[in-house]
Amino acid sequence: MQARRVPVIYLECREANHGRKGERMDIGVPIKNLGMFDVSALTQCVLQQEEAVWFEFAHRQKTYDVHKDTSSIVLLFCDDAWPDISVSKQVGWDVLSEAAVPLFDQVLAGRYPPGGKIIRAMAARLHPGGRITTHVDHRPSFHAGHRIHLPLVTNPGTRFMLDGRPVKMDVGKAYEINNQKPHSVMNNGTENRIHFIFDYIPPNQVEA
User: Fold this and answer.
1) Residue 104, class by beta-carbon neighbours within 10 Å (0-12 exposed, 13-18 middle, 19+ buried)?
2) Nearest residue to 197 (alpha-carbon basis) of 180, 174, 181
3) pLDDT digits (tens, 9 = 90+) for 96-138
4) Sign of CA dihedral 72, 116, 136, 197
5) In a domain, 21, yes or no
6) pTM of the model
7) What is the C-alpha separation between 111 and 37, in angstroms, rounded?
8) How many folded domains does the chain comprise?
9) Is 23 a domain residue?
């Protein structure tokens, strides 16, 4: 499937001063709880997808060894030509966007400034027995944005470590994680661990 260019996605939300242009995003804490959200429609849609869909866009797994035990359904993805990035729709947009876009709006509304850009969005699956080893997200686009996690499926054998401490992430809640801190995940359970993840770049970091 050929990637398609997608324009800036503008969302209605309110707040200001999320870092100056060119500065690294610093949310001041390792993780923020953004509240409860109804993820049932998105979860159902994700779980209905055929196995092959999880492997149609494998850039993340091929590029980053830490993600070798994962698979993804990618809706939006960007290249690395920061700050003149190009965001493209991937196969996941066709199958998940109807359920995902309302959650973008709900999570961002009142918490982040309007007029920014979602540059990545995906359902990310960590397989049973899999690990994402300790790492920090180094690329410039990671420094400029807010990384949001919505757990969809988890199990008691999942352990997320952030800045040297275990973090419990509940299904039905949204979290912003500080991906400039060392983080890792292990899934010692017998079921997949699935999070919906998206990166939001505030308007003062977006090129005109």
Assistant:
1) buried
2) 174
3) 999 999 999 999 999 999 999 999 999 999 999 999 999 988 7
4) negative
5) no
6) 0.86
7) 14
8) 1
9) no
- What is the band of 24 on the pLDDT scale with cuts at 50, 70, 90? low
Per the listing, tokens 């200001």 go with: 16
Is residue 18 included in any domain, yes or no? no
CA 85 to chain centre: 17
Domain interval for residue 40? 31-205
Is 86 part of a structural domain of the chain? yes
Q: Can you tell me whether residue 203 is helix, strand or coil? A: helix
pLDDT category at 4 given cuts 50, 70, 90 is very low
Higher-pLDDT residue of 28, 72 = 72
Paired tokens of 30: 């390792």
**pLDDT confidence of residue 41:** 98
Q: What is the pLDDT of residue 81?
A: 77
Q: Are 109 and 14 in contact (CB under 8 A)?
A: yes
CB 10 within 8 A of CB 114: yes
Q: Does residue 72 contact residue 132 with C-beta atoms inside 8 Å? A: no
d(CA 46, CA 75): 12
Q: Sign of dihedral through CA atoms 174, 87, 202, 98?
A: negative
Question: What's the token pair of residue 153?
Answer: 């499926």
Angle in degrees, 0-180, between the axes of helices 40-47 and 91-108, rounded to the nearest 10: 160
CATH number at residue 43: 2.60.120.330
Q: Is the peptide bond before 140 cis (omega within 30 degrees of 0)?
A: no
